[in-house]
Amino acid sequence: MKPEEIISKGIGTRAVHAGQQPDPVTGAVMTPVYQTSTYAQASPGEHKGYEYGRVSNPTRTALEGNLAGLESAKHGICFSSGVAATDAIARCLRPGDHIVASNDLYGGTYRLFRQVFGPFGITSDFVDMSDLDKVEQAIRPETKLLWVETPTNPLVRVVDIDTLVSLGHTHNATVAVDNTFATPILQRPLERGADLVVHSTTKYLGGHSDVIGGAVCTNSDEWAEKLRFLIKSAGAVPGPMDCFLTMRGTKTLDVRMERHCRNAQAVAEFLEADPRVGKVYYPGLPSFEGHELAARQMDGFGGIVSFLLKDESIEAAYRVLSATQVFTLAESLGGVESLMNHPATMTHASIPAKERHAAGLHDSLIRLSVGIESTEDLIADLDMALASV
Known about the structure:
The protein is an alpha/beta fold.
């Protein structure tokens, strides 16, 4: 199929086929791992589209086409990590420019904007993007980038992409959406007018906790050119085996997300009904503040559930975090296995406590990445862990 034919197909078909063609030499159905750093040229400047491995690689090209197809994008640009993808976007800003970002977001993004780019004169403010008045108040004449997470990490808040795109474009700001939690299976921000979509492909896209990667998808030729220039010049490239492993993951993304969502819904409903639990954060619960928006904006509610115990002491949280057998206490998310995380000391430790608390991120919050195991085993495991409090 031609790329334009693939992009018109259903999302499950795109996951398997977009960017993929049988190997022209052998007919191999799976894209080979082109483990090479350089390419032969018939004469100086005469080549078959590939010159040097830092600039491009056929395995990477296939993955970039796959991700572009999933996100309804013209361009997919892959990086060595999600942070590298974010870094490349921020590198396109200049001293004096300003970023408005979600205040409930991945701690590594906060660290990058504040501690890496802040000293270079690129300033940033972090606001609750579910409150559009606060977003508008934070925008300045020098604001060049709106950085949106939805659902957010770790409180899974859902923000209105359509309205933020309109607001950002009114102020001539680029709107980038970190779509890592939802994946293109559940939402496609470019279809809603966003300029850039960012992924940590380490998470759901790879799906097996065995590879690090990142990607940016866009319909803008200008942004694609700038990002490819940075790939060439700064070199944050994924290796061909990384790309192969990520492509192996995207082929099952549609079916995995269905199971992640179903299990997460069951876990969230169990936790909400348990008297030992004080509050549950999950867009699939009717009691969740952003439930109606999520139902309109997304094709499913995702695999991340966060919660607070009735006993909000850090000691109680630690007991639960140490008592599971199926859930593993570990960084990251989005793999087939269920993981349990303590944001305050793990993924969000780089955010100062005062700012974490102001954003509603309690020190005893527990974040679950609900995997694809048997639902009853996950619930039994949590029930056993909650007995410790």
